[in-house]
Description:
- This protein is α/β, with parallel strands linked by helices.
- The chain has a single domain, classed as Rossmann fold.
- Helix content is 42%, strand content 9%.
- It has eleven helices and seven strands.
- The protein has a five-stranded parallel β-sheet with strand order 3-2-1-4-5, sandwiched between helices.
- The protein is globular, with a radius of gyration of 18 Å.
- The site of zinc ion has 10 residues, from helix 11.
- The site of zinc ion (ZN) has 10 residues, from helix 11.
Amino acid sequence: MTEHDAERHAQDADIDSDPDEPGVEMRDANTKAGVAPVDGNAVVTLSGGQDSSTCLFYALQVYNEVAAVTFDYDQRHGAAEITAARKIARQADVPHTVLRMNTLAELGDAALTNAEIPVEAEATAIGGNTFAAERGLPSTFVPGRNLLLLGAAAAWGLPRGYDNLVTGVCAADAAGYPDCRLEFVTALNEAISLATDTPTFAIDAPLIHRTKAETWKLADDLGVLQFIRFGTHTCYEGAHDDEHKHDWGFGCGECPACDERRRGWEAFDRARTIKR
Length: 276
Ligand SMILES: [Zn+2]
């Protein structure tokens, strides 16, 4: 990202929406959301997007102590993401750490870490993300991203007493990233337990089999729907201002991330309108 882009994104990221204060409707949320409390502490990987932010409020219902970690890896929509993550952590009243992981941008060429590469649902090989193209994956795919990021989150959390790691990875996402599948999460859980000699270490991925509509429903059940709707950032282009405000939140409305968020919202909204 160029300096100019970063500046523009930082301006775009200036969220002046007025999301509902979390905590207001949360009293009976754990029964409503069907989540059982766990006697332990959890670190949540918080990107500032819909999924990870919903996971943060889920974690607050489930675990004793909760902290959030956000990664700065020169990602395409980084300034908007990190600004959103800071605000969300503040409103959820949890300790928040931003970890620099810019090595990711040096490792390979993906649209997520190189603004020259276009965001495509399926990568094109020439002049783009060849590794992703060979595997039929989106151009945003960064090989090893969740391996490194979740490993870093565990490495940050374990010495600080957070034996659980909550992540918003979702196998049902249209992107189909291999490091968002249950098999990967299960294997990584085992690997981190072994690597750190911590048999109690557990990765909790509450969204792994949820559709986006079901994730909206979880936010509703947790009592934070309005907050997730207008307080989180998903768009790959960093669009986050009044000109880019929709029923489903902020975004350019065109990129794959916006498209998925919008379609999920519409399915959720239809279902609850029918129920009423
Ligand atoms: Zn977008």
